[in-house]
Amino acid sequence: MLRVEGITAGYGPVTVLRDLSFQAQPGQVTCIMGRNGAGKSTLMRAIMGLVPVQSGQILLGDAALHTLPAHKVPLHGVAYVPQGRRLFGPLTVAENIDVGLLTRKKGLHRREFVLDLFPRLRERLDQVASTLSGGEQQMLAIARALCLEPQVLLLDEPSEGLQPSMISLIRETVLRLRETGLATLLVEQRVDTVLRIADKVAFMAHGRVEHVAERADLTADSTLFQQFVGV
Amino acid sequence: MSAGTKAWGLHLLVLALVFLAQFVLPSYHATNLARIMVLAVFAMGYNLAFGYTGLLSLGHALFFAAGLYGMGLPIWHLEVAAFPALILGLLAGGVMAGLVGILALRTAGVSFMIVTLMFAQAGYLTLLYLNSWTGGDEGFVVARSARVLFGFDLASDTPRFIAAFVLFAAGLLLCLWLVRSPFGRVMVAMRENEERSRMLGYDPFRVKLITLILSGVYAGGAGAAYGLLFGYVGGSFATIQYSILPMLYVLLGGAGTVLGPFLGALLMFYLIDITSGYTDAYFFVVGAALVALVLFAPKGILGSLRERVLQWLP
What residue ranges are annotated as transmembrane (chain B) (predicted)? Predict the structure, then answer.
């Protein structure tokens, strides 16, 4: 289980996250919602060690992630797909996946797992990543992160800018991964997506998690969406 | 035919053509080609750092000079034989790159460029300051009797060409193997997006340091071979010009391509050789050629070719 306990974090003198706490359980999808500037992406980056944590702690099992250098966080089983995908454009699909497999020394079995998850990537293994469509790039970004065989997957707005069929595919993938026991933390602005795949929703404002709701307690016209997302 | 087969086939074909060139070229051009092969090895090392990993260095003259003096000084002062001296030069380049890297890699981008430039200038001034040991600005000549490798007199045309070719072939094939290896992909990943690479568990400092050391070994090997094959060790090889030249070779031939440094060194060498026969302002012509390159083929000759036609070119 990923536990974020009372963290305060930010960029230099600017504090973005203030005494923020929440938990992400294995086999559950926890969606993070909030207006622009609420601190959703900063939370992701703080978990990954890319934003320094000034106080509080981030724990995964026995590992204190907030004490580790950023490149060691993935080695403890946390994978991150940032907004905008950020693939290695000149490398092929196969090479992007291989780069993902190398650090945790995951072999053919893991490679087959991610390619089974995204059969379209299997058809395009020799294609240069920068020439893929937006949806295919997102698939590759998620596949590459999954190569680490994570316990926790952080997805920052994976459906942003994608066509509806791709958004459905990403949703289905997240649901399939949930069945494997993965804890997924998903920053998402689309209410319909959240209602379909979330187990819990954490609503953020002003750098804090202000409210955590169970999916069963939410409907599309819930006042929480109006209050924290403005829809 | 797979991309790998095509890549190995092309590089072996180029090596075969270069080897055969000695039998058809006049002596002057064969000697030039030997010189170009050694300079191409220097540029290959620069390409590993800059072209594949994105480390824009202005300090490679220091690594080249480390190899040159690492070979030359033991021969001059201790009468060490050519082969161990060559190995010492090669190691000196790698060690120097490692030492510079440990400090300089704490910076990035323009700061890295300036810090490496400062190290190179400090190295150059140190060579001048220790002139009783290094020969200062004038340098020293490596005695012909010391330039014998496995019984071959490297001052003679054919053994010199073959020695340069062996170094070039080893450098080229090792480079091809390296960039096609998993570590080569990590180098490219680091160049493309350092933060993303870190999020996959790679330590950028470690990857860049290893790359810089490899680059230094190439530069040191080239420096040592240059001194041994052409018989001169001098401070001019530690000046900024020798940091800029490999960059120009790589930019012209194509950064991030295995054959680019050789093509760049070949074209730039003859561009300077030919234009200097007509004018003292030959660097003006070189500058104009580079402006044209930036305008019409910003990824260099082979980089542009790869983008448009040969996607499999490593």
Answer: 7-25, 31-48, 55-76, 82-105, 112-130, 161-179, 249-270, 282-302
